[in-house]
Amino acid sequence: MKYIAPRGTVDILPDKIDGWIGLENILRTIAENYNVKEMRTPIFEHTELFNRAVGDTTDVVSKEMYSFEDKKGRSITLRPEGTAGIARSYVENKMYALPEKLQKVFYMGPMFRYERPQSGRQRQFHQFGVEMLGIESPYVDVECMMMALNIVQALNIRDVTLHINSLGDEASRDAYREALKDHFRPHLKELCYDCNTRFEKNPLRILDCKTDKDHPAMKSAPCTIDYLTETAKAHFDKVCELLDALEVKYVIDPNMVRGLDYYSHTIFELISDASVLGAGSTIGGGGRYNGLVEELGGPATPGVGFAFGMERLIIAMNNNHLESQHIDVYVMPLGEESKDYSMQLMAALRANGYCADMDFADRGLKGQFKSADRFVARFSFIIGEDEVENETITVKDNITKEQKQIKVEEIIDFLDSKLGVR
Ligand code: HAM
């Protein structure tokens, strides 16, 4: 039998890992700048959590979940997204009772959706997400959007547009739902079976339908923004005003509804023009979810957040190389005795905080220099018989190409002077 990775999953091999670590480091730095702390929740949760939080008429829940029964017959699901788990944990750990009313958290990790794999769309993919729970204020919506935009900027991703819309509060959404029903009622016979079910249960989801997306009634459907209550409109106007004051460019997209049920008020997406992304041009999205915590048994608590698809960020970064990791020293032993000596030398280098590796393949100098290049080693240390006998090292500076002999007891001082004390 030939073993291959399951469809829609990808191995991240060592030659790609520098890009991932570089991305993760930038995301962590930005999180630190926004005073957002990391939070880690399980990769699997009770299926019921996603049915309730994300909504059982959404595609994510009804078509894309990886669900299974565990050995005790409980229905378990690999998380398709991060917000539900964070909200569940927020309630379970009574984070609403913490002295700091606004809890700002981020998470990074694998998510699972049974979708048709293509460029930027996988069945196991990674998200970097942020959730801000506890305060209902348009300022916090904009804090989230600014952080998302900062990430795009820091990664040097160009041609990304911020699309925003508002779904309003409960009363706005009730009015909108009725308007949608009135609009679609005369077309029900022409729409698919799923749309007919959605019509009864959750008419908003008709707008996500992939089968009927080209039906003329889709284009002429009413817009959420026309059904906002006064308070909801005031919230959205303030978001726009703040974005204007910060000189952020955005597009109001009255047809955007997002594919998850927990949203209320502001929703947003970051859409890239990069053709490499194809169908996966939405690199990130999010919005406000004021009812979610209460829905999961907690006290009424507003929330807002967003998530980026990390594979999509990497594709959109394209050739914006993040600095690839290099090593400080590549040790090149020539002969058996030199190998013992080299192992001791590497132990000393690492004990002093330097990043070192050596040739374990007994190759000649030429092959070893090739590895030093591949590892982008700052220095090569050549250790032959003479060096062992005289307790010296032939040091090659791989930038200046200069080569000189250095006494072994002086080598740490030498590196400290060149690379800074570690
Ligand atoms: P979402 O729009 O479903 O939102 O996903 C966020 C991002 O994850 C997408 O914009 C996309 O970049 C990426 N993504 C989604 N599915 C896939 C896939 N199959 N393959 C690769 N990337 C994918 C959420 O998940 C919400 N939880 C975001 C949020 C946080 N809203 C409030 N807080």
UniProtKB/TrEMBL annotation:
Its main location: cytoplasm. Keywords: Aminoacyl-tRNA synthetase, ATP-binding, Cytoplasm, Ligase, Nucleotide-binding, Protein biosynthesis. It catalyses: tRNA(His) + L-histidine + ATP = L-histidyl-tRNA(His) + AMP + diphosphate + H(+). The keyword Aminoacyl-tRNA synthetase applies. GO terms for cellular component: cytoplasm. GO terms for molecular function: ATP binding; catalytic activity, acting on a protein; histidine-tRNA ligase activity; transferase activity. It comes from the Bacteria. L-histidine binds at residues 81-83, 113, 127, 131, 258, 262-263. GO terms for biological process: histidyl-tRNA aminoacylation. Belongs to the class-II aminoacyl-tRNA synthetase family. This is Histidine--tRNA ligase. It comes from Eggerthia catenaformis OT 569 = DSM 20559. The gene is hisS.
